[in-house]
Design goal:
elongated; 404 residues; 13 strands; alpha/beta; four-stranded parallel β-sheet; seven-stranded mixed β-sheet; Rossmann fold
Length: 404
């Protein structure tokens, strides 16, 4: 068999364990004589377009091991959208000219819904051109919204961080009920509620945060929201609210967002994040209760210091599995994870590209104000264990690839 090279990239927002998938690809690729080396794309597919690649086989074993402890995207992420699979498209021509020059026979892309769209376009373009290329998608997203897989690498660690933040911030809020009775914590989750729902793991009793959880899958009613807040405040003395960033009202519109002012990313998705402030203003105006907002922002994506071992191991596993099935001759698929630890599958890239998996209604309680026991049973195994990261001078020690 002719020896060919592989190329791997990271795309979209990083997770705490995205580099573990990169580690899995590199380590597994070293086992096969069919692969000459693995090139890393700097900033995803943009690195190919700009001919900015590094040879990952030149990294030391020590540096590669550090990938499993380090957050952020070691190769750099991107949000670049390929617009066509036409062989005459300028981006496609540029990409495949680079592939030919570097003798690329295997393409691995680590990312979420939009990244799988990029991988699928590369797969389709290769078929049209007649270029022999194995294209494998490797799942990653803290939103946990990729279809066809039981869960996504990155979600477990983010869920662990969110639940911990709510447990700790909830106790802080409780201690200040007489002066600051309401707290609103916002997580990511433009159209799906998997991550904000994970806050329910912090709740052990009626008094514990969170008291109310609002998800994009539940049509938001201003009137019911105010009733819920007022009721809990009277019963408990304060209210800790968790919400996803993309609440939808009964008319299907984003809550607290003027459509004319919404910025869009490269894939046409709205960039949200102001829902907490909108709810704060509503509570203070209508209920006259002092309210503070908490926005976890990128901290929930990068909290390697309390990452889940299950999540880190899953991330390594999908990276290794991607190489194995590519060597077996597969292409045009994304690796999937099953409920049972250590088991994987695969699905067509066309089944996941730009498709979001929403939370089923049976994962919410009857009042739809909190996630159900069924959801708790789903998420609990995914946050198990803590990654023991190196500490230097009292702080986590992280490293970069030497080629960067």
């Amino acid at each position: 068999m002719k020896k060919r090279n592989a190329i791997v990239g990271q795309s979209g927002g990083p997770t705490a364990v995205i580099n573990s998938s990169l580690y899995g690809v590199i380590i597994e690729a070293k086992r096969y004589e069919e692969i000459g080396t693995v090139f890393g794309m700097i900033h995803g597919i943009e690195g190919v377009l700009k001919d900015e690649l590094i040879d990952l086989f030149e990294e030391t074993g020590e540096t590669l091991n550090w990938l499993t402890y380090t957050p952020g995207a070691a190769l750099g992420g991107c949000r670049y959208m390929l617009k066509s699979t036409d062989p005459d498209d300028e981006d496609i021509k540029r990409i495949f000219s680079v592939f030919e020059r570097y003798n690329i026979g295997y393409f691995f892309y680590i990312g979420g819904n939009d990244s799988m769209d990029t991988a699928n376009k590369i797969y389709e373009a290769a078929r049209k051109i007649g270029y022999e290329l194995s294209v494998i998608g490797i799942p990653k997203t803290i939103d946990n919204d990729l279809p066809e897989t039981h869960h996504c690498p990155g979600f477990g660690s983010a869920a662990k961080y969110v639940a911990t933040s709510v447990k700790e911030a909830g106790l802080h809020t409780e201690s200040m009920y007489t002066s600051e009775p309401i707290s609103i914590l916002t997580t990511v989750g433009r159209n799906t509620g998997w991550l904000p729902a994970s806050s329910i793991l912090a709740k052990g009793s009626k008094r514990d945060a969170p008291h109310l959880v609002y998800l994009p899958e539940m049509p938001f009613s201003k009137e019911q929201f105010l009733k819920d807040v007022e009721k809990i405040h009277k019963e408990v003395g304060g209210v800790f609210i968790v919400t996803g960033e993309g609440l939808i009202d009964e008319k299907g519109k984003y809550v607290g967002v003027s459509e004319s002012k919404v910025a869009l990313d490269a894939f046409g998705h709205p960039e949200l994040g102001s829902v907490g402030e909108y709810l704060k203003i509503m509570i203070e105006k209508e209920l006259k209760l002092h309210t503070r907002t908490i926005k976890l922002d990128i901290c929930q994506q990068s909290a390697m210091h309390f990452a889940s071992i299950r999540d880190r191991d899953d991330a390594i596993l999908v990276g290794k599995t991607a190489v194995k099935i590519a060597i077996d001759g597969n292409s045009g698929v994304m690796i999937t994870l099953e409920e049972e630890k250590g088991k994987t599958g695969a699905t067509s890239l066309s089944n996941v590209a730009n498709i979001e998996r929403k939370m089923p209604r049976d994962l919410l309680n009857k009042e739809r104000s909190l996630p159900s026991e069924k959801y708790i049973d789903y998420v609990k195994p995914l946050i198990e264990g803590e990654v023991k990261i190196p500490i230097a001078d009292g702080l986590p020690e992280y490293r970069r690839l030497k080629g960067r």
